[in-house]
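DM from R.C. (forwarded with permission)

"hey, sorry to bug you on a friday — could you get me a structure for this? deadline for the figure draft is monday and I only need the backbone to look sensible"
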Amino acid sequence: MAKITLDNLAHSYLPKPESEDDFALKELNHDWADGEAYALLGASGCGKSTLLNIISGLLIPSQGRVLFDGRDVTMAPTAERNIAQVFQFPVVYDTMTVEGNLAFPLKNRGIAPAEIAPRVQKVAAMIGMEDQLSRKARGLTADAKQKISLGRGMVREDVNALLFDEPLTVIDPHMKWELRTQLKKLHRDFGHTMIYVTHDQTEALTFADKVVVMHDGRVVQIGTPQELFERPAHTFVGYFIGSPGMNLFDAQIEGNRARIGEATIDLGARYAATGRVQIGVRPEFITLSTGGAGIPARVSRIEDVGRHKIVRLDAGGSEVSMIAAEGEPIPADADRISFAPEGINIYADDWRVAPQGEEAA
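My reply, with the result:
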């Protein structure tokens, strides 16, 4: 396992980048702890795979360094980094059996046959293929081949890091859950440093100790699932994490009060914010009422998703989402929404502003 340090790292696919906009991966300075599981989460084109390929050695960065446990590996080829990587689409040897594919990384490193056999059996059980070890890989389905790829990545115990680039894309939904569970168990049992690229928030939040949220080539927040949900550092995090995502309201703020349209609300704390100021509130922290104080809104539709209801509201021409308990009645004459103070986040030019007196994270 290894601590991975990204030092002044950035990358452009252009030969002579002239501005920050020319960089697919904007400058990063981060330490990723030895033995932790990280997920790189973001929309397509945000720089996730570029960063993973730099860490693995498949891509040399335009600037900066990559260090494993303090050793500079920026120019080192992939083979010298002692990593295992699983790609989005399966890479298997069709002429080999399932057992031969799983054993190949170990045989290639001169591991004794007596050590290989039990390790292959254990990994085959993890991926649900212990009864297919003697089958040739040719003719297997795409999801079966991807399970072999995952198994081959997991079969080695001595790697510095395990890297996964959207490995469950071709796997059926039920097996995705099974394999995520197995990856978590593998991490608990062996403590590998793991980095998992995905655009699926469910995969990221259920797999990782820390989620690295990327947007437009930049890391906008690294945090636990709870931190990302409760205190999104950037409006993109609020939008991307959660279903539905965070509601955003343009506002004017003075101290502990905010004005949204013609309504004034109490923020529960004092803020100093300049630029484009917005209030972010997740659907779970919005309540609906009839008359009195609050922001004028009307119910436009209700979506019953089983465990709860998603109430869609029109607030001055903007759609607002609220989550209500399954059995909670929605008054037909409801015309106001209000926010729970503990669910309020303030943003200036898309970045979170801490309330006065709150310690920096």
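R.C.: lifesaver. The longest strand covers residues 252-260.
me: no worries. The two ends are 27 Å apart (CA to CA).
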